[in-house]
Amino acid sequence: MLLREDLNVPLADGKIEDDTRITAAEPTIKRLRERDARVVVMSHLGRPQGRDESQSLKPVAERMGVEFASDCVGPPAEEAVGRLRDGQVLLLENLRFHPEEEANDPGFARQLAELGDLYVNDAFAAAHRAHASVVGVARLLPAYAGALMLAELEALHRALDDPQRPLVAIVGGAKVSTKSGVVRSLLPRVDTLIVVGAMANTFFKARGADVGASLVEDASLDDARAVEREAGEKLVLPVDSVCARKPEAGQETRVLGVDRMPAGWMILDIGPRSVELFTQRLAGARTVVWNGPAGVAEIPEFSSGTRALGEAIAASGAFSLVGGGDTAAAVEKLGLRGFSHVSTGGGATLEYLEGKELPGVAVLKGG
Fold first, then answer.
1. Is the peptide bond before 163 cis (omega within 30 degrees of 0)?
2. Residue from 21, 96, 129, 189 carrying the catalytic annotation
3. Is the CB of residue 91 less than 8 Å from the CB of residue 61?
4. pLDDT > 70: what percent of the chain?
5. What is the C-alpha separation between 356 and 170, in angstroms, rounded?
6. What pLDDT sits at residue 176?
7. 11-12 vs 15-16, strand pairing mode
8. Does 152-353 match 2-145 at the fold level?
9. What is the distance between the alpha carbons of residues 324 and 317, in angstroms, rounded to a whole number?
10. Which helix (H) or strand (E) element contains residue 2?
11. Among this protein's residues, is 51 annotated catalytic?
12. Low-confidence ranges of the chain (pLDDT < 50)
């Protein structure tokens, strides 16, 4: 049984800093082991340029307590697979040590496929990549979705394709340009669109506001104006802000409006009046989609808005989908709980929110 997981965990000096993705993979692996499957797990880690031992999956195999093969193809992989017994698990070395993986090379896909007789894709976070282990192998073996893949797709479908209303979407992040596709895809679906984070600064400046030294994407001012015209009353922006001279811990902070920033000051979080406004909008929601922190949430002085948003979403009782790597990281760091589903998808979640077809999902449907 060939199983594609996303075990792309952060490593520092060979130590795993966050094992969230390992934990997320465990239910599918457990189910397969209970059925006495011989489970051969494939994953990538980082973006190595050829073989790079600092990005080896060996520490992940040790954390999982499973066998490890020093390569994902060739004799090391074949011999390790041959030693497997019913109910055992083997993790192959980093797929991206071979450039053929990202090139979706047919020969490389065949080498991988020869290591199993069935294929299960549980790596939703890699489903937007047309790589050999995601698409190529799925065309060569009977292919199925794993438990995590199904959970991600079911949550996205419930939130976006068949939502209970009102549907409120919160979109944040640094740049309008990186989220413009998400915003335009969400606009026809949502009842309220709340924009936070540095993205909101671009909307403020597009209105003619003086946002001081705040991060603004000047090239996207016209896009912001177009979104605001299209959104009309659906669009809700912050009405006050937490500001400082630098996005650093220990800075003096002030609660100000969203216009006429003092020289050298920048918007780094939403303020208390914005929290109150957004909490009121969320209180009546039946479905909430949240993608992007409200401020520089990794710094305590600018994390209160993100914490308050998360608490308001959890308290709303709505079906809540939290997506995007930065949002999931902020939720974990701040210890926020009570959401219906926190996506591990990162870029795949973003592309689904944009309405794009995911190659790794399409191939499982026979696409």
1. no
2. 21
3. yes
4. 99
5. 19
6. 83
7. antiparallel
8. yes
9. 21
10. strand 2-4
11. no
12. 367
For tokens 């939502």, name the residue. Answer: 163
Question: 339, 340, 343: which is closest to 326 by C-alpha?
Answer: 343
* Whether residue 21 lies in the annotated active site: yes
Q: Is 242 helix (H, G, I), strand (E, B) or coil?
A: strand
Residue 175 known to be catalytic = yes
The closest of 169, 156, 256 to 214, measured between CA atoms, is 256
> The domain 2-145: what is its CATH number?
3.40.50.1260
H-helix or E-strand containing 4? strand 2-4
Q: Where are the domains of the chain?
A: 2-145, 152-353
The Cα–Cα gap between 9 and 20 comes to 8
Please report the pLDDT score of residue 367 as a whole number: 47
Entry pTM: 0.88
Q: Given CA atoms 350, 355, 359, 364 in this order, what sign does their dihedral have? A: positive
Structural contact between residues 123 and 345, judged by C-beta atoms closer than 8 angstroms: no
For the domain made up of 152-353, the CATH class stated in words is alpha beta
Residue 287 is predicted with a pLDDT of 97
Catalytic residue (choose from 46, 181, 257, 325) = 325
Q: Does residue 46 carry a catalytic annotation? A: no
The 3 state secondary structure assigned to 103-151 is CCCHHHHHHHHCCCCCEEECCHHHCCCCCHHHHHHHHCCCEEECHHHHH
Catalytic residue among 58, 110, 158, 175: 175
Residue with tokens 């006429």: 260
